[in-house]
Write a structure and sequence with these properties.
Chain B: It catalyses: ATP + H2O + polyamine-[polyamine-binding protein]Side 1 = ADP + phosphate + polyamineSide 2 + [polyamine-binding protein]Side 1. The structure holds two protein chains of two kinds. Chain A is mainly alpha-helical. Among the domains of chain A are: 34 residues, no CATH class; 161 residues, Orthogonal Bundle (MetI-like fold), CATH 1.10.3720. Chain A has twelve helices and no strands. Chain A is globular. Chain B is α+β, with helices and mostly antiparallel strands. In chain B, a hairpin with a 2-residue loop joins strand 1 and strand 2. Chain B starts with 22 loop residues before the first strand and ends with a strand. Classes of the chains: A mainly alpha, B alpha+beta. At the A-B interface, helix 7, helix 8 and helix 11 of A face strand 6, helix 2, helix 4 and helix 5 of B.
Chain lengths: 286, 378
Amino acid sequence: MVRWSRFNIASIVFGFAFLYLPIVLLVIYSFNESRLVTVWTGFSTKWYGTLLTNQALLDAAWVTLRVGLLSASASTVLGTLAALSLSRYPDFRGRVLFSGMIYAPLVMPEVITGLSMLLLFVAIGIDRGFWTVTLAHTTFTMCFVAVVVQSRLQSFDRSIEEAAMDLGATPVATFFQVTLPIILPAVLSGWVLAFTLSLDDLVIASFTSGPGATTLPMRIYSQVRLGVTPEINAICTILIGVVACGTLIAALATRRRELQRQKDERAAFAESMVRTVDPPPAAAGG
Amino acid sequence: MKSLGIFRRSFAPWADPNAKPFISFRNVTKRFGDFTAVDNLSLDIFTREFFALLGGSGCGKSTLLRMLAGFEQPTSGEITLDGQSLAGIPPYRRPVNMMFQSYALFPHMTVEKNIAFGLKQDGMPKTEIAERVAQMLKLVKLESFAGRKPHQLSGGQRQRVALARSLAKRPKVLLLDEPLGALDKKLREETQFELMDLQYELGLTFVVVTHDQEEAMTMSDRIAVMSQGRVIQVATPAEIYEAPNSRFVAEFIGDVNMMEGRVALENGHSVLKTEDGVSVPLPEPLAEGREVALAVRPEKLKVSRAAPPEGANLYAVRGEIWDIAYFGDMTVFHVKLPSGKIVKASSLNATRGVEDPFGYDEQIWVSFEPQAGVVLKG
């Protein structure tokens, strides 16, 4: 057991302060009564109330939500397919190139991704708006899904799929009845990741959206340029709350499942030990 | 070859020239890149046979099984099942089922759902599925575990679920890839006999892949000993043990003493003269001076203080006891012959003690009957 030395405590406090102090400040000031962001005059929730009447912000939130849901779903399908083909056919020609290309958007500066999308949309003459943002988000979140799903597939026992086919399941039936249910947790966390990325993307959205399709980060950014209002603090606090809740629920669900599995395995093991010591008549009669 | 009398077998379709093989490999070759896993192999397996493919890792036995299941396609040659070619038929349309080494149970399904999986794919009515699943659970004695998931089962129980699942569709042939490999020794021995009984009762053809010679000897009607993608010998366990066709088979199965020697001519007959001066007549004339070996199993060698009497028709060599290994049920004497070669002679400890036991460094005689050895050319 490691003792809590002063150095340990100090580094933890400093580390967490570094990470969370700005967020805590933002949350605190969202409950400020004053219109001036930096002057505390008293506790109030009125800015949450005025939020509901700010139609522009609400519209932007609605756009963001729709873009997020659509692009996350599309990129989950595409990313899962990419991960499957990458891990299933390890010897196909150009595999290294293909996998490198899948991962490139992870490290590509968003400005470049956004700009290249913009050029493409202009070149083929698509009016920028809701659909172009959705497309762009699908493109850049897809690689994240592929990475998450591929790491799950690496520990996947292929003989399970072979067993399914051996028992008469066609490749399609095998995928939907066996492969997908087993990798579903990874696919879902890929979806959540894609959704969150889409939710808080500003750069790519700015390049690819058009009139009538302003996302929430874009709206917040443009308002902040005119000065930070407590309203902005309030909506940011709500966003933080949503993301934190989502992460917490996902973490708790994973932990519970893991604990249950460990418990089951211990039980099965204990049972098998008992059986070895004292075989029941049914087993002995074979 | 004359059949060897160890015990009577009423089931021997391979000895019947009119019997039609059920599974037939015809000049099958399988290459993975430069590596030849199966090399121009031909093999016949008959209905209701318990057939074992035995060999070390990388000998091609698993590839052979996977080609039968349809997971691999032969590079050349043909596999037929019940007279029909299996070429181009995908695994999900073959009337064979496989039990995987890792069991490959579906982790997200209960025991019941695992067993029902294959039946559901065939579109069997629900009531019939339920009936068949119950039957299978009873067969493998897991009735009370129907609702459990694989991770809630012990290794032995998982093995049974895998077996029940692969038998549920009543396949014509059951393929078993190292079926007992993951079980501990005691459970493995029990399960061997259960598998044999099951195969007999259901009247199925079993093809089992194993690297465990004892397992293959116990369970199977016939064994194919494989090495480097080829079948070295196909025969009953007794023939494989008592009449191996090569040094490889003799050394692979059980313990054996190889008495090296050369072919010589005595009174116009070819004989094998071993290094220690034993002359054994050869069944067929061979070129003089050719190096051959006499393979004698340890239990066929007899250790005695006195030289065997004249006219006893025994081959005898003088030797010295070099090492003694006591196993409880038997004792193995390592005897050093005049040539410096050490042979093993095992004797069954049929009584609880011997009045005047052998000791280390004692000069003794090693003797064996003329039929005890097999002459191996290659």
